[in-house]
Design goal:
With 252 residues, the protein is an alpha+beta fold. The chain has one domain (41-245): Alpha-Beta Plaits (2-Layer Sandwich), CATH 3.30.70.100. Helix content is 38%, strand content 30%. It has an eight-stranded antiparallel β-barrel, surrounded by four helices.
Length: 252
């Protein structure tokens, strides 16, 4: 049970976030907080691939994933270069849960998809994991200014309380990095299913070295340092990965 004083502060923060958009929202609980004003959500799928089969798996994806994207929108598909090994991450957009259910039913009945991709791909996969996440209210899904480059996937495990508790501080830290100009924000996602109070942030950089130089400069920027110090009050852990888009990924 939160003390009354602590309870009022996150609710006030949530009210300011909602009010800034001019559309009041009702908070169902402190665990969720404000969201986008529609039913759109994103399914994040993470596959651990057998080391000896990674090349084969990527070839299957690039050859047959047009069969999968005929059913619903793929946001991006990446393999992980640093921060993990033999891992693939892909993100799917759905209008609502009924839309996802209809897509899954259609895929189960798609003989080409099942035979050409699923059957051989399953022999390459060691483990599968999925999450459902919403874009935070102050973020729209972005795209890089050009093709090429690398993506950084940063996962923040926040303290319980949701965006109503840590939303303003987290947004300030993200904006401080954006304002340095060295990186491009693609999206900020807050989990609804999976490990709760998890935030995934996707950044785009021209190259790993460009990202390293930008981070070095950002850490010497007083505005970034102040914003990060404020936001880490709500942080429990952090993990990041450097990812390379596969050939069929819409985000390249």
């Amino acid at each position: 049970m939160l003390p009354p004083g602590l309870l009022r502060r996150p609710l006030a923060a949530a009210a300011r976030l909602c009010g800034a958009r001019g559309r009041p929202q009702v908070l169902a609980s402190l665990a969720t907080g404000p969201r986008q004003n529609n039913g759109i959500f994103y399914e994040i799928r993470t596959y651990d691939i057998k080391p000896s089969r990674m090349k084969e798996f990527v070839e299957l994806v690039n050859k047959y994933f047009h069969l999968r994207t005929a059913h619903s929108e793929l946001v991006g598909f990446w393999t992980v270069e640093l921060g993990a090994m033999n891992k693939a991450v892909h993100v799917w957009k759905y209008d609502n849960f009924a839309h996802r259910a209809a897509v899954r039913k259609a895929l189960a009945n798609d003989k080409d998809w099942q035979g050409k991709f699923i059957s051989p791909a399953l022999t390459c996969i060691e483990k599968q994991h999925n999450e459902v996440a919403y874009l935070v209210p102050w973020c729209q899904l972005g795209k890089p200014s050009k093709e090429g480059g690398v993506y950084e996937w940063v996962t923040f495990q926040m303290k319980p309380g949701g965006p109503a508790l840590w939303g303003e501080s987290f947004q300030a830290a993200i904006n401080a990095h954006i304002n340095t100009g060295y990186t491009k924000l693609i999206g900020v996602f807050h989990t609804e299913y999976g490990l709760l109070n998890t935030v995934h942030v996707i950044w785009w950089n021209e190259s790993p070295d460009h990202r390293a130089a930008g981070r070095h400069s950002a850490h010497e920027d007083a505005r970034v340092v102040a914003a990060v110090r404020d936001s880490v009050r709500f942080l429990e852990s952090q993990h990041n990965m450097l990812m390379i888009p596969v050939a069929c990924s819409p985000l390249k």
